């Protein structure tokens, strides 16, 4: 039985090398030397009679055979890991049903402003699922095999993955209500009179044009590289900020921020939720996906128009 299986360490080395596209990074993860990983790959290739990797520059790209085999190994290892987790829970004194752990990679802004404040509700509804939150800051999606669920700005186009758009969002302008109160009878035309916070990844131009205002970018003041820090500055009353509406709906509902005008422009990037088909924890993944949809549907909707007097933006 299992007479065709090579050593487990060789299989782990193949899975890690395919995931990292690097023998060096696979060796670091498995606490092996680079030559040991190379030896495992040569041994597997001799046993199979076909190449498993090809070198492209500094990267080791798995062949079609190598990629398929690594994926099957990854699924098998995940199932073994889950089986041992269940076994440990079952042998513990007075143990409750086994807990499933999902590793979720999520964009930092969405995690800080929307997901994390709601995690207690997820835990209450799904006590058998623990979420491990991994923050992601790059626009490009990471290796989709590295986590169970990814909430990123790009779809995963790899074969065998599901990518679904999280929601249709839009960009609005917000500020502290006290900031508007400084200008009696405030209208949208008064916007340039207020300090306008700058974001490294979005200009003010599109919002200003949609509001019928001169598209003059602010030239002074701090520039924020992180959307979460930008919103903290807005909540602190330091100026107006453009932001995705989903990220500030809680702050608007709490009265910490108000929407300026009814200008809504499409974001340059969307959020996509991605996971692998036939994942061993597929039921937990679907529960998490459904919970996110329910939470978005229940999020307080934004009103139209200026919250503190004056006319709304021109179409």
From TrEMBL:
<dbReference type="InterPro" id="IPR005119">
    <property type="entry name" value="LysR_subst-bd"/>
</dbReference>
<keyword id="KW-0804">Transcription</keyword>
<dbReference type="Pfam" id="PF03466">
    <property type="entry name" value="LysR_substrate"/>
</dbReference>
<dbReference type="InterPro" id="IPR000847">
    <property type="entry name" value="LysR_HTH_N"/>
</dbReference>
<dbReference type="InterPro" id="IPR036390">
    <property type="entry name" value="WH_DNA-bd_sf"/>
</dbReference>
<feature type="domain" description="HTH lysR-type">
    <location>
        <begin position="6"/>
        <end position="63"/>
    </location>
</feature>
<keyword id="KW-0805">Transcription regulation</keyword>
<comment type="similarity">
    <text>Belongs to the LysR transcriptional regulatory family.</text>
</comment>
<protein>
    <submittedName>
        <fullName>Transcriptional regulator</fullName>
    </submittedName>
</protein>
<dbReference type="Pfam" id="PF00126">
    <property type="entry name" value="HTH_1"/>
</dbReference>
<keyword id="KW-0238">DNA-binding</keyword>
<dbReference type="InterPro" id="IPR058163">
    <property type="entry name" value="LysR-type_TF_proteobact-type"/>
</dbReference>
<dbReference type="InterPro" id="IPR036388">
    <property type="entry name" value="WH-like_DNA-bd_sf"/>
</dbReference>
